[in-house]
Write a structure and sequence with these properties.
- The protein is of the alpha+beta class.
- Helix content is 31%, strand content 36%.
- Strands 1, 2, 3, 4, 5, 6, 7 and 8 form an 8-stranded antiparallel β-sheet that branches.
- β3 and β4 form a beta hairpin.
- The radius of gyration is 16 Å and the shape is globular.
- The chain starts with a helix and ends with a strand.
- The relative contact order is 0.19.
Length: 161
């Protein structure tokens, strides 16, 4: 088992692939969307979405977001997960975009060929992926939940501290 909270969070992020991203729309209505993510060593979470999707339109107006990551169908005694707060937005910097493509393609082989131009290119994904852009969630706070320690056990980390 990793020694530090930071290591345990990194291990958890590496072991899972889907986060639920929560945003708030212009009318104040909350919305949650499940997205595949690829984490980097700085705990940035990169994901693909269509610019006209509801959650992206919302975060374009209000970049503060929340997210959860957890395994499905857990026994209550073994619930583990992450709760995250941060800021999200489109990746616009060319160097960061290349970084996002690299780590996302390494994590999700079903889109690697379409992102890098090398390897398989599933025809069913060509159109939808062409409409997508890379976005990044930059966490400022992460809470690790682990009922294996005891019911309701949690540890919190302010990213950057």
């Amino acid at each position: 088992m990793p020694d530090t909270l930071r290591d345990r969070i990194a291990e958890f992020l590496a072991a899972h692939t889907t986060m639920t991203l929560a945003t708030v729309g212009p009318d104040g209505a909350p919305q949650a969307a499940a997205v595949f993510y690829a984490p980097d060593e700085a705990f940035n979470l990169y994901f693909l979405s269509e610019p006209d999707s509801r959650h992206i339109r919302s975060l374009s107006l209000t970049p503060r977001v929340a997210a959860t990551i957890h395994a499905d169908g857990q026994d209550w005694r073994r619930i583990t997960g992450l709760q995250i707060e941060g800021v999200a937005g489109q990746v616009r910097d060319a160097k960061e975009l290349a970084h996002a493509v690299q780590i996302y393609a390494a994590r999700f082989d079903f889109v690697a060929g379409l992102l890098t131009g090398v390897g398989e290119r599933p025809a069913t994904l060509i159109g939808p992926l062409a409409r997508c852009r890379f976005y990044v969630l930059r966490p400022c706070w992460i809470r690790l939940i682990d009922n294996r320690v005891r019911f309701g056990y949690k540890e919190e980390w302010r990213v950057g501290e």
